[in-house]
Amino acid sequence: MVYPPFSPFSLEYPPLITLSQLVLEVISEDRLLALRKRAELDSKYVLFLNHSELPLSLPRIASAFSELALAYYREEARRIKSRIEKRSSTSLDLIVRYCFKVAVYAEFRRDWGEALKFYEDAYHSLHEMIGTSTRLPAIQRLVEIKTIAELLHFKISTLLLHGGKLTEAVIWFHQHKSSYDKVVGSTEYIFLHWEWMSRQFLVFAELLEASSATVQSFSSLNQGTAQIPLTEFEFYPAYYYQLAAHYLQNKKSALELLVSMSVAAQEIDGSSESITPSVYVGQFSQLREKGEALTLHFITDEEYIRYAISEAKRFQDSFEIVAWLKKSYESFTNLKSRRMAAFCAFEIAREYFGLSDPSNAKFFFDITVNLYRQEGWVSLLWEVLGYLRECSRNLGAFKDFVELSLEMVALPVTSCDDFGNLRDKTYGPGGPATVSRRESIHREVFTLFCRETELISSTEESGFKFAIDSPLHLEIDLVSPLRPVLLASVAFHEQMIKPRSLCSITLSLLSHLPLPVEIDHLEVQFNQSTCNFVVRNSQKPLVASPSSTVQSGSQEENEPSLVLVPNNWLRLTYAIKPEKSGKLECLSVLAKLGTRFTISSRAESPAAMEDSPVWKHENYVQSLPTKDPILAVFGQKATQVEEPEPQVDVSLGASGPALVGENFTMPIVVTSKGHAVYSGELKINLVDVGGGGLFSPREAEPFSLESHHVEICGIDGAEGNDESESETGNIKKIQQSFGLVSVPNLKEGESWSCKLEIKWHRAKPVMLFVSLGYLPQGSEANAQKVHIHKSLQIEGKMPLVINNRFMLPYRRDHLLLNRIKPAPDSEDISSLPLNEKSVLVVSAKNCTEIALKLMCMSIELDDEQGKTSCLIQQGGGGGETSGSANLAPGEEFKSNTVSVLPKSEHVLSYKLVPLTCGQQQLPKITLTSVRYSAEFQPSTIASSVFVFPSAPQANSTAK
Amino acid sequence: MIVCVSVVGHQNNPLYIQSFTDADDALKLHHVVHCSLDVIEERVNNPKKSGTTLNEAFLGLLYPTLNYKVYGYLTNTKVKFILVTTDLDVRDTDVRNFFRKFHAAYVDAVSNPFHVPGKKITSRTFAQTVSNIVGSYGLN
């Protein structure tokens, strides 16, 4: 097989000859060599193929081909480059063409650097052609240049982006944009320029989007150069999509203008149908029949323009614009650029609005309007609201229409805008944001719903195709954008009021509408519906309108006029009489305007009333909602209605102190003194009083622990009232510090009592709270409970203080004194003599003011050996055990209690062991009675004894 | 030429916005200023990424759009100043000088005891000073 050589002109590129093995078998190798030499073929271009090993041979053929191709492209490029360098042709067209060729060849060779260089050269040479070339008619000439520039730009951008040179690509795009930004051509047909510009942005956006997957962290790239600083947004495809859409919008409007202005453009010329793009990039020609043959002819600019207009009209630009803007919107939303996204949403919505698609438009306008509301961009908000108002009009959403209109008219648009700032003639459908415009919208809305029924037939003029006689109700809360329409501030004059007595309430209304509004009547609603009242405008005829909130027969007030003057508080003060106790709060104020329109505004306290954080009505004098400045600053929309005076007495029958371990009984008596008691409930609470302030941190233990120290053991039901308890199905709930007992129904004058048992585990003062809640008038549904509270502090006391100490053995042998000397720390651990009897003194002291009956005492040793626990029994001994002090030396104890009994006799006996002889003093005994302040003092004779030196022992008994 | 200057508060609410153009693009400029707040937010939140230093009040070029260039400035009290210009060739020093003067005028305006912080700046003196600064922009 012999393949033809690549170039028909030159034999520099040898044919590639492949010979099959079969040939080799026929022709000898020598002959083959001779043939090759004769043909002047390099040996590397002659390949031997073995058909059986074709798959192995194919790569060899491929590499031979590519080598040849590379050589060819290199050679071709070199040849053309030499022409460029020689400047053999002064024509710029040719230079552009040569550069393009070289670049394409370089691309074939994957020589990206050279490709880029020559594409750029071509681009710059092309730019020089603007204004110098005269080859084609003016318009088509520019079209051709721009089309080629676009192609070159596409090539350059692609090469840069594929090479990962994102910053360079963006900078290149900027240069491209600024080079051709002003190359508009004929201003009459500017739509051609806008279309071209739009395409540049779109193509670059798509290229950027495709490459952003490969170039991840472009933010880390050096952004721009000193000359051309780049910003974050310029790396986002969304930015270019948005601008592409913007230019296409320009094109669309320019084209629309052109079509509407020129008659010629409106006619679709049949001749333009035969115009087609030529084989040369950026040129157009017409196909004409000449006899049998079809020939291509150059066209005039007029023909071209007709063709371009008819082509442009075929495209639905709006759909393109919406699609690109949506891409941009989604991308900006993902980037958390809320404002950019909102702007894109606004543009999308405007496009839909232009396409008469109000529901889609409303969706995107709503996205925008929320952000502008939130950030208080009043003039932008006004514009969007104007669009939204028209959307709701087209959608027939009457309530939306009214709400949007009212929001618009209540906007704080400053009056200076009338002649100052916003002179934009390209308004949205809302018109200019001026006071006069606000007033006209105000009038439009109010005539819509305030006119009489007979006029409703003409609603079509307002754009609403249906009768709007259905009632319209608007709710305004604290975050509603309609809050400036009707602001209701309500202040009670008193913080606490008595039930069934008159109390004053001031109602202040403020409207930021531009024109005065007359209110037919006001309904003021409270949480206690019996307090609701109506304020009527005397000038308006009394219309018996059904009201869901105000019951018939409730309070009615009349005002000579109820007119809300713009930006002025309408202050109304009335007296109301609350029936029930508890919280009385004004909920809302409902204003009725006309026969069908009501606005309900949430009531606000003057004290808590705040301006919107970003929303200010700067241009008006701020006045207070009430004349009383204190009320204006501290006034509240809620007040507390006191309970009626309780006419039932609760008495706590004991006072204490209570003793630790004792079951302390507290009688509670409920006595009716004028009120009958129904559904009575007694709540009992024990509260630790240690928390008053003077308590150590150790005492501030968790409540659960504390509660164990004092607990309610039980509540003994009322004596003899068992049957009534079962009747009412009484609750009896007891916890450690809380108890709930229900009280049976009591008639006037009756009483009931129960006993509360409280046990102290530790000496601790506690506060006992007892509260009785009852219904004075039977079990009516709306009856209110009356509460009585009682409290009592009860001390918990330790009844006995028990002390013990060891007596040291008496000195039987004074010579042994040193040996039995107590250790210095004997206070803590007494050292006792071994194998000796020691005396343990145990004393129990009554700390209370009452007599205690000591039943028994026991002593236990926790020592292992000492299983000598003993019980000390005092048979029937009762009464006061005063301190058992003054134990004489030698007095022996294993019974260690001394009882002093009132009205009884107690014998105190002890043994004495004399150590020396002579006159000796007996142990002195003093008896002191606390109660009678009596004292016993034995005489000196009775308290001394003589000890003889002789052997006989002396015994003495003293009383 | 400066076409618009604006003061924007903490909650991105406009405190002062004034355009200096005869063309019908006041509303467009409002959009431009509003959108530029996104860039400021991004720069403030990611100071490293954008290469601006923290203690620099001048934020530089925020973004180019259509025929405008938008520059930003952030005061210590987080009030933003935004400048929109139609100049293609803008010298950084000119913009810095402008913002310095503008900042001084702003401080004067809010130091007025009758000015409520967070409210719109309605002072006529401020408006006059601003238009003087705008007029003298780029002259020296």
Distance between the termini of chain A: 157 Å
Write down the Rg of chain A: 55 Å
Mean pLDDT of chain A: 74
Low-confidence spans of chain A: 1-11, 216-222, 415-424, 452-459, 692-707, 719-729, 811-817, 864-871, 873-893
Structure classification of chain A = alpha+beta
Form type of chain B: globular
Biggest interface between chains: A-B, 36 and 37 residues
Low-confidence stretches of chain B are: none
In which range does the helix fraction of chain B lie? 40-55%
Helicity of chain A, as a percent range: 25-40%
Features:
heterodimer, A: 959 residues, alpha+beta, 11-stranded mixed β-sheet, 5-stranded antiparallel β-sheet, 20 helices, 32% helix, disordered N terminus, B: 140 residues, TPC11 (chain A), Trafficking protein particle complex subunit 11 domain-containing protein (chain A), TRAPPC2L (chain B), Trafficking protein particle complex subunit 2-like protein (chain B)
Summarize the structure.
The complex is a heterodimer of chains A (959) and B (140). With 959 residues, chain A is an alpha+beta fold. Chain B is globular and about 40 Å long.
